[in-house]
């Protein structure tokens, strides 16, 4: 996150230590034996706080060289400038997900602000370590979900010390649009009038943008496009799960839509949402059959295909992130999720473009990435233009 104002490092350390005391998983390491992975909290272990100098690029370079899972699963990185800087909570995705990250950051900033204001913060009793998601999801997951889980193992990042400069040429092209508060309010008004969710409308606009991008191949006929979405189901389970009770409790749901060049984004989005909602309800029903894989292909096989020819994309919903409690002289100007795949070329390439839709500070943001092996910078710019025109703003 980009901050504006004065950040006191001493208070950052005190607030982070309080957070790590409360959430034992932040102090955990992973041990591996023949039976698999095991979370372990060594006595006295505290995650590292990295105080860096430089720019946002310095932060991204530091993220690549994250600690090995056997030494630490989390660390805090701070880049301080003159009246502004960056702060990042880096977490191992095998144990944490975005829901847990936002929950932890919210608690961190509450503690930081309380200390800054001269208030006492209580040392909360350490929480139990999170359970494996399989404890809750084995009865619901299908082969597709399990294959996604396999890509999130604790040691999937490889050894970045072996990277050459040329390796970074394969990093994905990043796509980012951050709308103004006024644009966001107007789009929310349109969604309310049309009885459509924000995620659905953005998904519809992205699908329509891809259809228009491929219009030179066939302008007359409709084209089938697949839209995937990782859907967190914590709040849909009985009883609901807390953000730090487990991680990666999701379905990879799929919607298939037929798209014409003149179809409204809202109409497409409603079709996508209807299919996703029906899929989730079916899979959570105790009376439904265990779902089967509709595309019997491994991720490695998909990666070998020409991703540019694939009529698929993923649009994930990050939701509305509430504002953090901050001192009066500090502001979080921007917040961004940085997946490992965008900075570490050792990770396997994603089989299709992927986007995350979320809002912070009343501003809608779409973060995405395209394989640089299949999409050029001009391709991404073209799709961005089609997307902006497809949105009802």
UniProtKB/TrEMBL annotation:
The keyword Transferase applies. The keyword Kinase does not apply. Residues 172-367 form the Phthiocerol/phthiodiolone dimycocerosyl transferase C-terminal domain. It catalyses: 2 a mycocerosyl-[mycocerosic acid synthase] + a phthiodiolone = a dimycocerosyl phthiodiolone + 2 holo-[mycocerosic acid synthase]; 2 a mycocerosyl-[mycocerosic acid synthase] + a phenolphthiocerol = a dimycocerosyl phenolphthiocerol + 2 holo-[mycocerosic acid synthase]; 2 a mycocerosyl-[mycocerosic acid synthase] + a phthiocerol = a dimycocerosyl phthiocerol + 2 holo-[mycocerosic acid synthase]. Its EC number is 2.3.1.282. Keywords: Acyltransferase, Transferase. SUPFAM superfamilies: CoA-dependent acyltransferases. Gene3D superfamilies: Chloramphenicol acetyltransferase-like domain (3.30.559.10), Nonribosomal peptide synthetase, condensation domain (3.30.559.30). Belongs to the acyltransferase PapA5 family. This is Phthiocerol/phthiodiolone dimycocerosyl transferase.
